[in-house]
Amino acid sequence: MLGYYVQLAVHSFRRSPGLTALMVIIMAVGVAASMTTYAVFRAVSGNPLPDRSAQLFVPQIDNLGPQNGATRANLPDALTYIDAMALMRAHAASRQTAIYPIAGNVVPQDGVHRPFAVTGYAAYTDFFSMFEAPFEYGGAWSDGDDRARANVIVISSQLNRQLFGGANSVGKNLDLDGRDYRVVGVVDRWNPQPRFYDVNNGYGFGDAPDVYLPFTRAVDVHMGSNGNNNCSASSKPVAPGWDGWLQSECVWVSLWVALPDAAAVQRYREFLGDYASAQQRSGRFQWAANVRLSGMMDWLDHEGVVPPETKVSMLVAFGFLLVCLVNTVGLLLAKIMRRAGEIGVRRALGASRAEIYRQFIAEAAIVGVAGGALGLALTAMGMLGTDLLFDPDIAKLAHLTASLIGMTLLVAVTAAVMAGIYPAWRAARVQPSWQLKSQ
Amino acid sequence: MQIRPIISALWHHKSGTVLIVLQIALTLAIVCNALFIVHQRVTRMSRPSGVDEAQVLVIRNQWIGDPTQQQARALMSSDLETLRRVPGVVDVYASNGYPLGTDGWSKGVRYTMDQKSAASPTAIYFADEHALATLGLKLVAGRNFRANDIGDMAPRDSLMPRVIIITKALADKLFPDGHAVGRQVCIGNAPPSTIVGVVERMQTWSGSFSDAWVERSTLVPFRLLASSTAYLVRVQPGASQDVVRAALRGLFAANPLRVIGAKDVQAYDQVRASAYRSDRGMAILMGVICLVLLATTAAGIVGLTSFWVGQRRKHIGVRRALGATKNDILRYFCTENLLISVGGVIIGAQLTVALNALLVHRFEMQRLSLTYVAVGIVVVLLLGQCAVLVPAWRASRLPPVEATRSV
């Protein structure tokens, strides 16, 4: 029976090729616009670490005070060095790392290549295990290295290719800003997007970091933060020099903790509140403890990682698809009602209402398949154009994956079938006697 | 022309009529809001930066290793000297940032040191006596920095300027009476600084966080002795290409221990393009969606009207046989479309406002001005009339003899 419907549909398309082509093209354009913007949205709003995100948390402490605009919902989105170090020392979570973004220049020792700029992070050894960074060679530095403020470095596989031709470089030396570091590990291709651990510095998307240094070492060599540094909490001028900055109320350090279960989360929350209360008692804060502990996905949401452009364009594109749908309903209706006579004949010859209904739903579905196929081609073209429309770092993330291909076809066919329901219902209600009489 | 027969004819095509009304309503809502987004983005992109962009280049430089303060001062003045000697260079200065750049400093401005909350945020630009001439900033009151105003500052030192130059936007915000020169304000937590000059305009760096205070900038008379520096270079018209080549050669010859990457040398039009990249993309996307949407709706109107004309061949024939002119038929279909469109835009206007309210609420967009809705209504009505012309014209050509033929 399906074969017969397809045959009838093809016959009907031949009779009005212009109208059919119009329906297919409109459906395709609507689907392509929606799927392209959706692909970008999905790429930026995804969970960068699906199997771990539920256990990773970010503490925040209000060192700003209500008079400087801090509220329960609006806390500084980084910590002071003093607070970050106090929380690290307390070891209240099973694993924890303070992090800040760094930038430096690598000086190749071959005497041929010019020095070049690299970016990366200063962190503790737990960084790698907490965030599941895979290693190509070697591994993370040890807890002892953190404490010894050792001059060790973990580099990306990209930097390893550039400097060491991709060979195992563990144990080799690397000159960063005129200082020697011993390579202990090469991180395999690893670049979770959005880069959840650094979204508070506005670096949510981009190429993988090149280097990772022990936090303690980076502070020792006075490597400043390559991210935000907010001193609005300091009521008096910051004391001069590096140590003045470390001891200041400027916030620039991120802290991440791993908390395996709800009980641990509760304990950490209490610990955090107690810490802030102690700061109040000591006279540092003139306000009641105001702290927050956010899970990873809440944190990404709180930091507004998904650019509003992405959401607005998706909204408008789906509105456009809705118009395409309404349009297709109208055109299908016109097409079907024009064939009222033919329907009357079929009904008179014994076709049931259900059969007529199915016939026209099949016709609509075929329009959907054709629209989906064309839409897929347009979506693929749209993917090439995303870097004209969105930030290139974000556009790079949108790919035509198998699931997206499936979804494009599904959306097209579903939309077309939905558009076909009313016209098919109308067709099924055609009275055979009227039609035959008017002939 | 009588409206009643048209309405009664439409009553017989309820579903088709409802569909076109709905489509026109949705089209109006989306097109108005999309065009409003385009308008906002284009307005943002066409904000003047205050910089004489055609003649200014940016060279970002990083020293290798940690030069001491003395070394950094020597390196910087040697670089400025090198750049000044390059043929085609008019003027040059070093800073921490520049309008439309990717990052920079900001501080709160207070009237007194013990004022609790800041009167206004401001962008901080390090400058010397060459800054105004290099960027082409217009001094509207007071004076430029003098050579003896300029001091050195280490990156971790507190910013404590004795004198500052501010933009007119910041001056108007701080001193609405219009007399800013000679007054004192506190930058961050610093002791009071005297305002010695006001420049017409100097934008902050790019990014949405400074959208509310985009022209409130402050120039401070310091050389920032940090390992990374931006050199702002004013070149003679048409000389950029040669200057870039000669400048890089000169800088690396003077001291090879530095990094100036491929993206670190930019003409100002590149700075502007990357600052407004996502705005431009959004404007293009919304513009394209508008065009395609209008085309889709026009196609839908043509399709459905053609179908109606086909259905009513006999009626048209009868009317023509009874003395209706071709113009009468043409006018009939145009009026019919106008009625439908008016129904569509009435619903559409409400949808437009509702969609805008959603965008305002969820995405902090601005409220749509009613002019947009009015213009949108006119566009959609005109579009409907144009779309209906072809099928209506074809209907008017039907000969009266159609009345006697069977379908």
UniProtKB/TrEMBL annotation, chain A:
Membrane topology: Multi-pass membrane protein
One GO cellular component term: plasma membrane
Domain MacB-like periplasmic core: 20-266
Positions of the ABC3 transporter permease C-terminal domain: 315-432
Residue intervals passing through the bilayer: 21-41, 312-334, 360-384, 404-425
UniProt entry tagged with the keyword Membrane: yes
GO function terms (MF aspect): transmembrane transporter activity
Claim: ATP-binding is one of the keywords in the record: no
Compartments reported by the entry: Cell membrane
UniProt KW keywords: Cell membrane, Membrane, Transmembrane, Transmembrane helix
Principal subcellular localisation of the protein: membrane
Identification of the protein by name: ABC transporter permease
Source organism: Dyella psychrodurans
